[in-house]
Amino acid sequence: MNPLYQRFADTAARTPDALAIQAGGQALTHRQFLALADAQAARWQAQGLEPGQSIGWLGHNSPAMLAGLLACAKLGAVFVPLNWRLAAAELAAIADHAGLAALEHTPELADLAAQVRAGARLAGADAPLPPGDVLLVYTSGTTGEPKGALHTQHGMLANIDMATAVQGFTAAERVLAVLPLFHVGGLCIQVLPALAAGGAVHLQARFDPGAWLADLAAWRPTTSLLVPAVMQAILAHPGWPAADVASLRFLNSGSSIVPVALIDPFHARGVPMAQVYGSTETGPFSIALAPGEALAHLGSVGRPAPGVQLRLAAADGTPVAPGAVGEIQLRAPNLMRGYHRLPAGAGFVDGWYATGDLARADADGRVTVVGRSKDMIISGGENIYPAEIENLASTWPGVAEAAVVGLPDARWGEVPVLVLVPQPGAVVDVDGLQALFQARLARFKHPRRVVQADQVPRTALGKVQKAALAAQLMAGRAAESPGQPTA
């Protein structure tokens, strides 16, 4: 009935005195971590939390947050981690949609929690969720209103096993965890698998590049999960060139297409940058480039994880020809059970979860993601994949980040527009960049405009919000670059 909890109980029995979690001044062994979860479960049970009910958690990364998940697993309740970056009104709407019976918060977010309580019912759902559900995570909402993805205990165990196998986790693993645990990436790619293997996790409450480098030096982690925005911050920090990276077996990245320009500096230091492809709905461990393949297959997200079936589908649902671009569709034991309060099967096509992401596969089955289907630009009848332009632009001197969106055009239907975020103090030679496009890209792919901006809108996990960026461009809230490319 509570297999997820039991897995961690087994780990605590096997390695009771080994370090499990370090956070700030707190250090917990595996026995102490399980005891923290047991105490949390006992407290919630005494307060009347029943199987199938949901409890919200609002807080920065902490051992108590991880213990809360295990406490729910033990009780048969559902853990709902909340994105503390959202406004109180947004959180209250999610709390009502989730049917939270209660809301827990950490001290630093007491004011935000009070605002959420004032705007939400917190009366519990009309009916309990089915037995086995344990995690309800709301999507980042890059394409619309957030949706709640329900994950079962068995699905989370399958994800742990996949992630452990591909990343080679053992009790010797030391994970430096900096991504927010309110997303499945921060929670399920490295943290839970490492703990289940008997390894240790160093939790940062919030990411800071200086703190990451300090913990790299002091704690000597073997791995860490990053996203492009985090990678960029680390590489830009003055402490990076002298950082001792010898303890790192590998690093991992995910959440969006990772520009080669961000991967190369880590490879240059001898640190393989592995890749994980997935989403809130997929567990998220779906397709992965193993650490041992990272250096040789730059730009690929790897192959399907053990137990994952992949098909690349055309718009009509049929498989695409080898090497052609198609939508990533998945079948796997770690997929969500479904969306909370949406009809059964929502998001699925004939039993396959339709990701909305476009990719191609090579002869060995390695996958390269080319973009979102909703981000694909159709200009004069030609398909343009923003990632191709973004990756090329990211290699240009002075460019910290590149994002491409399609904007309406009376003649071509829509045209690509490139937004550049310059490196601090850099002046980007846009004319030179235009020449690069002319040499490397078909003419119809050339950005019609180049715009420079201090930053681009992002989700909590660093994904560029393309719809918001396009809206900003339409409203004229970014500066046009001199010498912009023309079609």
From TrEMBL:
Domain AMP-dependent synthetase/ligase: 8-340
Residues spanning the signal sequence: none
A GO molecular-function descriptor: medium-chain fatty acid-CoA ligase activity
One GO term of the biological process aspect: fatty acid metabolic process
Ligase is among the record's keywords: yes
Top-level taxon in the UniProt lineage: Bacteria
Keyword Magnesium found: no
Keywords: Ligase
Cross-referenced Pfam families: AMP-binding (PF00501), AMP-binding_C (PF13193)
Residue span, AMP-binding enzyme C-terminal domain: 388-463
Family: Belongs to the ATP-dependent AMP-binding enzyme family.
PANTHER family: ACYL-COA SYNTHETASE (PTHR43201), MEDIUM-CHAIN ACYL-COA LIGASE ACSF2, MITOCHONDRIAL (PTHR43201:SF5)
Record protein name field: Acid--CoA ligase
